[in-house]
Specification:
Layout (H helix, E strand, L loop, with lengths): L24 E5 L3 H12 L3 E7 H6 L1 H5 L4 E5 L8 H13 L6 E7 L1 H13 L6 E5 L2 H7 L7 E3 L2 E5 L7 E5 L8 H18 L1 H8 L2 H5 L3 H21 L15 H10 L6 H18 L5 H13 L12 H8 L11 E2 L2 E3 L2 E2 L8 E2 L2 H11 L4
Parallel strand pairs: 1-8, 2-3, 2-4, 4-5, 5-8
Antiparallel strand pairs: 6-7, 9-12, 10-11
Helix pairs in contact: 4-5, 5-6, 6-7, 6-10, 7-8, 7-10, 7-12, 11-12, 11-14, 12-13, 12-15
Length: about 375
C-alpha cells in the first residue's frame, strides 16, 4: 500500500480490521482433566504442547503431569509472581527450547496462572493457541472466560495485559478437593458478586447453601459454577472488549479491592480485596440513597455468614488510597469512578456507563468504614 501525502492534498484510507474468533469451547466434569481431557487433546493436536503452571500445582499433581510426556514449566506460586519479569522468564524458556508458532500452551492453575499465561500466549510469536485448566474456584467462575489477561505492576493490578480468549477451557471440579478453605471462600466472593450485579436468585441460593460449601458438595458447586459463567457470558457478549459500559458491571467491588491489593503489595488475596471492595461500594451506594439500609444489612450478613473479613488494620492513609484509585482503569482524568448497587441483583446504570465519579467525601466514608477500629 502506498500512502500519498503532499502539502495540498491528503489521502485517507480506511482498512477493515478483523477481530480474532472469540468462540471458546468449555467442558465441565469431575476428575477428568488430567486423566482424560489433556491426554486426548495432546494426542489429537498437530502442535507442540507446553504446559505452564505454578510450583504449588506442579508439586500437587507431579506424577500425573509427568505422565502427559510434554514439556512443563512452572514459576513460584502466588500473586507476587504475576509480573512482567515472570512473563519474560517464561518466554525465554520457551524460546530456548525452540517452541515456535506451531505451539499450543496449556495453563494449569488459578487466576494468577491463567492471567499470566494467557498474556504470554497472546504475545508469543504474536499469538499461539491457549487452553485454560483452572484449578481454583476463582479461576473457574471468573478468570477462565472473557479473554482478559494481564500482569500486576507497582502502580496497579492487571495494569498491563490484552484481550485473548482461550480456544478451550476445561473445568474439573475435582481440583477443588485440594483447595484450602480460604481459597474456596475467595472464589465464592466472585459468585456473590454475580448475584449482586445480576441475579437475586443466585444471591438467595448462596444465603441458604452454607452446608453445601462446608461439605464440598461438588455437584452443587458445579451447578453454581455453570450459573456464574452463564451470567458472565451474557455480560461480556454485549461488550467483549470493554468498548461499551456493560462489562463494567463485572468490576463491582474491584475498584477499592484492586487498590487495596496494590497498597498491600499483593499480600491481600483477591477474594478478600473484592469482598471489602463490594462492601465499600455498598457504603457509597447507601450514602447516595440507591441502596436501602435493609439491603445493605442483608449483604453484610451474607459476607459475615461465610466469615469473610470486611475490615483492615489501618496501615494506609486516604491520600494513599486516592493515589492508587486515580490510576484505576475506569477513572476519567484521574477521577475514580465506581460501579454502584441499586438493589440486590441490579446495578445503577448511569446512562449506560454502569459507573459514576465518586466524590472525595464518599470515598472517605468508605475508607473510614474499611479501617474502623477492629
Amino acid at each position: 500500500m502506498k500512502l500519498i501525502h503532499s502539502q495540498t492534498k491528503l489521502l485517507h484510507m480506511k482498512i477493515k480490521t478483523v477481530r480474532p474468533n472469540l468462540l471458546t469451547e468449555v467442558t465441565f466434569g469431575v476428575r477428568f482433566a488430567l486423566e482424560e481431557a489433556l491426554p486426548a487433546l495432546i494426542d489429537e493436536s498437530d502442535k507442540k504442547t507446553v504446559l505452564i503452571t505454578d510450583s504449588h500445582v506442579e508439586k500437587l499433581y507431579q506424577t500425573r503431569l509427568e505422565a502427559l510426556n510434554i514439556k512443563i514449566f512452572s514459576f513460584p506460586a502466588g500473586e507476587p509472581s504475576k509480573t512482567r519479569e515472570t512473563k519474560a522468564l517464561l518466554e525465554d524458556h520457551l524460546l530456548s527450547h525452540h517452541f515456535g508458532k506451531d505451539t499450543q500452551i496449556i495453563a494449569l492453575g488459578g487466576g494468577v496462572v491463567t492471567d499470566l499465561v494467557g498474556f504470554l500466549a497472546s504475545t508469543y510469536c504474536r499469538g499461539v493457541p491457549l487452553i485454560l485448566v483452572p484449578t481454583t474456584l476463582l479461576g473457574m467462575v471468573d478468570a477462565c472466560i472473557g479473554g482478559k489477561t494481564g500482569v500486576n505492576t507497582p502502580y496497579g493490578k492487571n495494569a498491563i495485559g490484552t484481550f485473548y480468549p482461550p480456544e478451550k477451557v476445561i473445568i474439573d471440579a475435582g481440583f477443588l478437593t485440594t483447595l484450602p478453605h480460604d481459597q474456596l471462600i475467595g472464589g465464592l466472593v466472585e459468585v456473590i458478586k454475580y448475584g449482586l450485579i445480576q441475579s437475586k436468585s443466585l444471591f438467595e441460593k448462596i444465603e441458604l447453601s452454607k452446608d453445601h460449601w462446608e461439605s464440598l458438595d461438588l455437584p452443587f458447586i458445579m451447578e453454581i459454577i455453570q450459573q456464574s459463567l452463564k451470567i458472565k457470558h451474557e455480560i461480556i457478549s454485549e461488550d467483549p472488549f470493554e468498548e461499551k459500559g456493560t462489562r463494567r458491571m463485572l468490576n463491582f467491588g474491584h475498584t477499592i479491592g484492586h487498590a487495596l491489593e496494590t497498597l498491600e503489595n499483593y499480600q491481600l488475596d483477591h477474594g478478600s480485596g473484592v469482598a471489602i471492595g463490594m462492601a465499600a461500594a455498598c457504603v457509597i451506594s447507601k450514602r447516595r440513597g440507591l441502596l436501602l439500609q435493609a439491603e445493605f444489612d442483608r449483604i453484610l450478613a451474607l459476607l459475615t455468614l461465610y466469615k469473610i473479613p470486611l475490615h483492615r488494620p489501618k496501615s494506609h492513609s486516604i491520600d494513599d488510597l486516592m493515589s492508587v484509585l486515580a490510576r484505576d482503569k475506569k477513572a476519567l482524568l484521574a477521577t475514580p469512578r465506581f460501579v454502584l448497587l441499586k438493589e440486590i441483583g441490579i446495578i445503577e446504570p448511569y446512562g449506560g456507563e454502569y459507573c459514576d465519579a465518586a466524590l472525595f467525601e464518599e470515598i472517605e466514608e468508605a475508607f473510614n468504614w474499611i479501617y474502623k477500629e477492629l
